[in-house]
Sequence to fold (1268 residues):
Amino acid sequence: MAHRVEVGIRPEFRDPRGEGVAREVREFLHLPVEEVRTLDVYTLDLGLGDDDLAAVGDALVDPVIQEWTLGEPYGPRGFPGFHWAVEVGFLPGVTDNVGRTAKEAVEMRLGREFPHDCQVYTAVQYLIRGEVLTRDQVERLARDLLANELIHRWRVLSAEEFARAGGFPAEVPRVRGGGGGRVGAVDLEIPDEALLAMSRQRLLALTLDEMRAIRDHYRDPAVRRLRKELGLPAGPTDVELECLAQTWSEHCKHKIFNATIEYHDETGTRRTIRSLFKTYIVGATERVRRGKGDRDFCLSVFKDNAGVIAFNQDWSLCFKVETHNSPSALDPYGGALTGIVGVNRDPMGTGMGARLIFNVDTFCFADPFLEGELPPRLLHPRRIYEGVVRGVEHGGNKSGIPTVNGCVVFDDRYLGKPLVYCGTAGLIPREVAGRPGHEKAARPGDRIVMVGGRIGKDGIHGATFSSEELHEGSPATAVQLGDPITQRRLYDFLQIARDRGLYSSITDNGAGGLSSSVGEMAEQSGGARLDLGRAPLKYPGLDPWEILVSESQERMTLAVPPENLEAFLGLAREMRVEATDLGEFTDEGAFHVLHDGRTVAYLPLGFLHEGLPEMRLRARWEKPVHPEPTFPCPGDLTAELTGLLGRLNVCSKESIVRKYDHEVQGGSVVKPFVGVVNDGPSDAAVVRPVLESFEGVVTANGIVPRYSDIDTYAMAAAAVDEAVRNALCVGASLDHLAALDNFCWCDPVASEKNPDGEYKLAQLVRANEALYDLTVAYGIPLISGKDSMKNDYVHGDLKISIPPTLLVSVIGRIEDVRRCVTMDAKRPGDRVYVLGITRPELGGSEYWAARGFVGNRVPRVRPEETLPLYRGLENAIRRGWVASCHDCSDGGLAVALAETAFSGGLGIEADLSGVAMDRVGRDDELLFSESPGRFVVTVRPEHAGAFEEALAGTAFAPAGTVTADPVLVLHGIDGRPVVNARIDELKRAWQAPLAALG
Amino acid sequence: MPKVKALVLTGNGTNCEREMAHACRLAGAEATVVHTAEVFAGRVRLADYDFLNLPGGFLDGDDLGAAKAGAVRFRYGRVQDNGTHRFFDDLMAFVAAGRLVLGVCNGFQLLVKLGLLPALGERYGEPTASLTHNDSGRFEDRWVYLRVDPATPCVFTRGLDRLYYPVRHGEGKFVTGSPRVLAEMEAVGLVALRYTDPQGDPTQTYPWNPNGSPAAVAGVCDPTGRVFGLMPHPEAFLHRTNHPRWTREDLPEEGQGLALFRNAVEYLRG
Fold:
């Protein structure tokens, strides 16, 4: 029998969780709520006796601030005036982290362990005071704020109903239903339409060509003979078909990036591109590496879970950024939490495994203050924003990894699909057990060992909207919830196992689950024999194909030599990490899958990994033409600047960033916020991952999707340039800087439903060209990346596609962090310089966007101009001639000057008439153009000569001085003042927009 | 001079063990990071150390409230010897033997929930206080100004006055079961550390007082002064480049956080 425990905060103490809900209900839902108090509810399905139950309070309750009840409601005692009660718990099968911890606490208190199928289930009860609230309003509050129908169940009771029923009943949301272990035979000898229908119905996401390729494989007489010997049906089993679909998925094989593309440009010229990935990304990196010669620092690129570069004699550096967009659209908190905890496993599974040193995250959202009706199934951008921020906060903070850098971009087209980029960097020992730490190889005879969480139906087929409604008793498969603590234990364990040399290869279980992790590692040894029947399950009832492709979180797969198996499993037991021997790596050339000893899949590795037919696509580029803005230069440019500072894309993101622990691990050097009162926006982050040394790691990013409306070539070039500029601002060196590319696109495959697919593919081609051109020009190798190609929302005739978005993340080594520079003006009397050339490039700018224009003259990167400047700046910073350095990006030169001034708590008086410019005819162009390649730099007067010498021959100009008078005064083209504003007013405008968001 | 042996206890969600050990080493101690599992397996004995460090983090995810499940493990967990005995007995013996205990952030929350702080009248093991959600309802990472109570018996803060450290927590508001507890603590100097405004006066004003702690409580010691816990992170400020304004202020090379560890080592050396 299950027991229900309710834990409340004693009435004399505040309940900030309840206060937060009340605030959110009033401000976001505009409902008349007076007060909310919250309770924690534990349903103990442990079969406890009376003595045990008396002791449960010791495990679950803080006696100083909390009270508890057993088998009766706490509400009437602790908060008697409530009018409504809402209780929100999880659907069966959804990860319940608190429940898992509660069970462990009870076990520790009682000194004995309970079997796996005895669990503790948690819920939160909200007691609401609000005399005039109606049931409809409370239902809405529960649905739109407190719960998410994909993972939660909830119940609403009025005070009378509550009293009558004696509160909420004890309910055990255990996954019910038996069965499992079934293997189906699939008949592919069916007409083409039926093959396609099968692909759709089973959510295989395979094209007709791919379905045919699979069918043809099974027609091969040699294959048929072998299958007969193995006792397998002639056609594929469902296990094989699902495994192929995972391995051949866009997510795993990047089919669009590897397609052969016929590209037509606007002049009618036709060109064939054989694989964007090989041509532009691998191509760029190979060229950069050749150019670097002996100074090439790449160690492992494009072949592992993260890219690896050299750091110092003891350590290598790896970095990976991923997206988790669709899950975050469905459940922003769980999606983002899983995103960050998931990307942590990439460096953990790179080479022999990394120690994680920082996280980064970049979000693209619609306006959180959006008013009006939303299309069906979409969550309000404010819920997305708050949920994602909380998810990354929990994922990063609880894992003990500092979140050091990121960006938030707003555009209302992200309403259909928010973008959630999460990245993690790590350090890998140069050597592990006498071999390079960035290499690994499963050997024939090694055991296949899965460690970490158990397998459930989570994330089967990724987060697709299931056609079947979720209901009580059915496990939630669409959405997963990450569990930072299970992963933390796993991570602690793996660090020790690695240093003891207990395994020979490791990879994470992400997309595709075991089918991908074991399937990929099997390539190292030449085969694998995996018995799914041994896999630990969260609950019974899974069929073998489900076990194979489940994406349940917090799992890694390792190759453990048989002689180390006992030591490995023993260490895991002691550290409370579940580890299971699932079979062995072989050299028999096949991925051989069994279930309780019976063969359920046998896939030759050659076919599994190379059998995928190449995709052929067409791309057609037409240059879009937008209306040119016609408005005259505004008279009050101070007001324009103030307005720009308050734009969502420009304003301070401090209310988000403060929630992230950016200092854990003790190596923080350049923080997200700097300046006289720690609130100026850093361009990049620097950490010192080895505390005994002053070597640092720098990271920064660039992202400018607005330019995609004009030309994705310009967009991608600007993203690379912005990332590089940001890194240079704090003291990075172009000699040791590498980049990651993360593409998020709208569907670029033309079809009836997607008539402009050829244009979107052309946009992708152009972005790749720019990526190649710029990384080659700057000598920055691309070391890893990822693409997410279907970021569209479709409902009936309504289609919302994201603007093509490329995030460029850079990482590099800094020789001595004591040379780093921050963006805040340092002292009165320092000289102000503007570096780079300003052109009237306002196409896609924030300034024109504020007036509803896109325009056409998009900012263009000119590496022949920027590269010498960057080299000079890098040198000047290293020599110590620079007091502050800030990049000009969204909002242009005026925004950069304003930020430099108010971050330092100082004024700036600058005459911009002498700034290097080209065809600039208006003051608003001078102030707000977004020409790349520009910086605002301040220099101590005594260093001015040396600084100017370091930059000799590049486009830069002295523009003015830092002043004690806290005012920003800017003189325009003809030398007359055009901006005159108090810095505290500018700062207030910049800080206001997002300050209030939870 | 005998080496001071520092133990940094980790596992199940601690996060700051590496920098805590680094701080101990910079202060001259010999520091070992040990997973709790090693201690419970009986392979590492608390009694072999002089200085126990409980680092920040999220023990068990803080799922039942900050360090609550961790406190259950420390109180009821058993150490394997020839039979078993409670780990808590080892901990009490360690304190009684005159050794030092430092808990930072989650480690402070753990000490309070175990009843090792404030332990008025040296009644260890009876919880009389707690650390609960910040008034803001938010986790925050921000630097705070601190002041040492000149009358405190705390050995870690000897000779120190004003300090500047980061806080990084969501549950840092120090509350007591009754106002009398706080009054008694203040009377005997157990509130070793208080949040202040930039001028150095204890404050209730956000964000200087980041969590709304009554009496601006930031750090608490036991009546012997040898058990000390604080929400701010001294181990996050060991070098001037950790300071948020190091690029604009003239700062000594050594970060202010090291002072607490130096005091501990000096005390243990006698």
